[in-house]
Amino acid sequence: MRVSGRRLLRIAGWTSAILLIVGVAVAAAAWFGGARAVVWLVEHPVSSSIGREIRIGGPLVVEWGAPTRIVVDDIHVANASWGSRPEMFAAKRLEIAIVLRSLLFGPTRVPGIAFDGAKLLLETSDHGDANWHFAPAAAAPKKRSEFPDVRRVTVKGSEIAYRNGETAAQSTLAMEDAQFAQTEGEADSPTGGVKIALAGAFQGRPLRPRR
Fold first, then answer.
1. Whole-angstrom Cα distance, residue 89 to residue 78?
2. Which of 77, 117, 143, 165 has the most beta carbons within 10 angstroms of its beta carbon?
3. Is 207 helix (H, G, I), strand (E, B) or coil?
4. Which domain holds residue 75?
5. pLDDT tens digits, residue range 165-187?
6. How many distinct helices (H) and strands (E) make up the chain?
7. How many C-beta atoms surround the C-beta of residue 187 within 10 A?
């Protein structure tokens, strides 16, 4: 069974939310201990808590302000043990803008997150297990109100691949330049509002933003 572009984006959004939760932990460590504390937290306690190794190969910079920006170069997240590739996620650059005050008083406010040169592999095993189900599953947010309030996600030069382990079917969404933003005034509605602008290709067929 092939997966549609809409479903691919939905699964990718769920996975990105998990990565954002990691980002919130990063922000908390930055607040209390600085960049060195962030690297230690991500590569050790956070990696252990989600059951996946997270490795930071490049520099990590914290730019204090309102919001505070956390910039990470060369970040990698390991795949499930049964996965077809060693890594589930990798990015040349990851930027997270977060309102640190919201970590204490909630809800967590994330004005923006940006991926550059990212590769995300979503796949299932031949038994139907999904690699985006991190451990512990019980800790993952289940309600909209439990997720960080993310206003804007931008993606450049990145790719999402989906592989069905039971059928070997594969789908690929390449994003040259994409932006996902909450529409003004609809963020608190039950259904939410998201504006999407995407330039790239799905299964090799060009996708361009509507004019």
1. 7
2. 77
3. strand
4. 5-207
5. 989 899 999 999 998 888 765 44
6. 3, 11
7. 13
